Amino acid sequence: MAGFIEYNRDFIQRELENDGLYSSLLLDPAYHERLLDEHILSLDPNILYSTTVLSEEIFKIPNSTLRGYIIQLSGYVEALEATARKKALPYISVFKLHMVLLTLKKGESLATIKVRLGLKEAKTTKKEVPKEEEGKYKQKYNDETLDLIFKQVFGQLQKYQTRMNAQERWLESQNEIGHLRSKLAENENARDSKLKEIENIKSQITINRLYRKLDLQTMAIVQKNSEEKGSGFFSLFSKKSTVDFEKDIRVDEKDLKTDYIESKLEENIKQYTIEVEHLNEDIEALSNEINEKENKLRSEIKQLEQFTPLELDDIVPEPVGLVEEE
């Protein structure tokens, strides 16, 4: 519950920044801390609160008094009609009632508060029954039945809210996994590109060493040619030539020293290798994160599969009201 405090504080500040009651209580040193009471701020903002819970557990006032305030403050405090006699309030309405009760404690009357809020007098919607006909009517449901109906409806509403929250988390997980997969593919492409570049550079080094080897062998031929009595390049290959190719001309790979070009190419390989290692680390981390989120997504799917559509008609088959006795 404590995890909701900061979220609710920001939520209330955004929603009620232009609310007169909120501003006056916030600026009143004697009521500032009571306005932002942690007990109220720690309530779950994602569920609905019945008048029974509000009166008995939160505000500690009679249920009838609380319902009277809700009726009088209609248009400011929004309440969902769960049944004819039961109401359920979202968190913002719970906080507004909290502000009204604090303002009453400051000494203001409910009538004054209504004027400040620009509310009209509440009109009763109760059907007027002539005294001579009162005996002809009876209540459709007794209080015990109404309480049972309210619990069923309220339970379904809470399940519906839970389902909506699970669906939001499911969609959020889907979007996050899609973004991570795109990033993973981008890193894998970058890694593969650098690996191909490393292979290309290695081929360049091989070709460079081959050309250098041929150059050295050609120089050895020229040198041996000058030592022979005959002149000319092809004299080395005459029958009388005493040049041993393996001994006098052939250049061993081990004798080739690294030149400037090869050293630069080797530096490029080292740089690409480091980048590939970093990309592999990122790829591994992204793969692990995707697996975690996919496991979480499967859990959300199982939770969604537990819910069925909300069907109030199955809970309250007939409207609640007054019926005429037969």
Describe the structure.
The chain has 326 residues and is mostly helical. The protein is 64% helix and 4% strand. It has 12 helices and 5 strands. It has helices spanning 5-15, 20-27, 32-35, 38-41, 51-58, 63-72, 91-105, 110-117, 143-227, 245-249, 260-305, 312-315; strands spanning 49-50, 80-81, 87-89, 137-139, 322-324. The strands form 2 sheets. The protein has a 3-stranded antiparallel β-sheet. The two termini are 52 Å apart.
List the helices and strands and how they pair.
Blueprint: H1 5-15, H2 20-27, H3 32-35, H4 38-41, E1 49-50, H5 51-58, H6 63-72, E2 80-81, E3 87-89, H7 91-105, H8 110-117, E4 137-139, H9 143-227, H10 245-249, H11 260-305, H12 312-315, E5 322-324
Antiparallel strand pairs: 1-3, 2-3, 4-5
Helix pairs in contact: 9-11
CATH level-3 fold name of the largest domain: Helix Hairpins
Low-pLDDT residue spans: 122-127, 133-138, 309-326
Question: How does the helix and strand content classify structurally?
Answer: mainly alpha
At CATH's second level, what is the architecture of the largest domain? Orthogonal Bundle
Order of helices and strands: HHHHEHHEEHHEHHHHE
Gyration radius, in Å: 42 Å
Number of strands: 5
> Largest beta sheet: what is the strand line-up?
1-3-2
The total number of structural domains is 2
Mean of residue pLDDT?
Answer: 77
Helix fraction?
A: 55-70%
Tally of separate helices:
12
Strand content: under 5%
Globular, elongated, flat, extended or rod-shaped: what is the shape? rod-shaped
Distance between the termini: 52 Å
For this structure, what is the CATH class of the largest domain?
Mainly Alpha
Q: Biggest sheet, in brief?
A: 3 strands, antiparallel
